[in-house]
Amino acid sequence: MFERFTKDARAVVLGAVEHAERGSAESVDDGHLLLALLDREASRGSFALATLGAARQRGAIEAALGGARRRGGLSQADTEALAGLGIDVDAIVSRVEEGHGEGALDGSRPRGKPGGGVGVRGWLDRVPFSREAKETLVKSLRIATARRDRRIGDEHILLALTVRPGVVAEVLADHGVTHAAVDRVLG
């Protein structure tokens, strides 16, 4: 499938790997794909993000993604739903971090462990893609196909992130980036 990706889409995928490695993540996830999209300039996806104001809100987006990672991947909606049942997720996270260290639930691995970053073998040593990230990339292919585009661009990855349920779609929507809005901007 990677051969069908445009130069910009490939840059997003490779950028996501770099974000995951820098953060010592166990796998590349949708949040890493979003951060890599925010890194891009002069592409269709970056144009949509800039037009919708998300590029100017990068700090807030990173903070929202970091908060979700700290909560073990729970979205704000999940946290609020649990609060409605009397479960204080922030208190639970704090207790876990007291016993196991800050960021104990964030999905990162300790630095220096096997699989931690690029080694002699290059690409094979890289962080694997999570199931959600793989599904997002497959969804981007389906979106490109439905739009009758021959190649998968970074705009298709962005559209896929807006329709897949989870933290990233919630964070994007909170910052004005919905599927309908991206679709409208891309025309």
Automatic annotation (TrEMBL):
One of its GO terms (molecular function) is peptidase activity. Residues 2-187 form the Clp R domain. GO terms for biological process: proteolysis. Gene3D superfamilies: Clp, N-terminal domain (1.10.1780.10). Keywords: Hydrolase, Protease, Repeat. Coiled coil: none annotated. This is Clp protease N-terminal domain-containing protein. It comes from Streptomyces huasconensis. The lineage of its organism: Bacteria, Bacillati, Actinomycetota, Actinomycetes, Kitasatosporales.
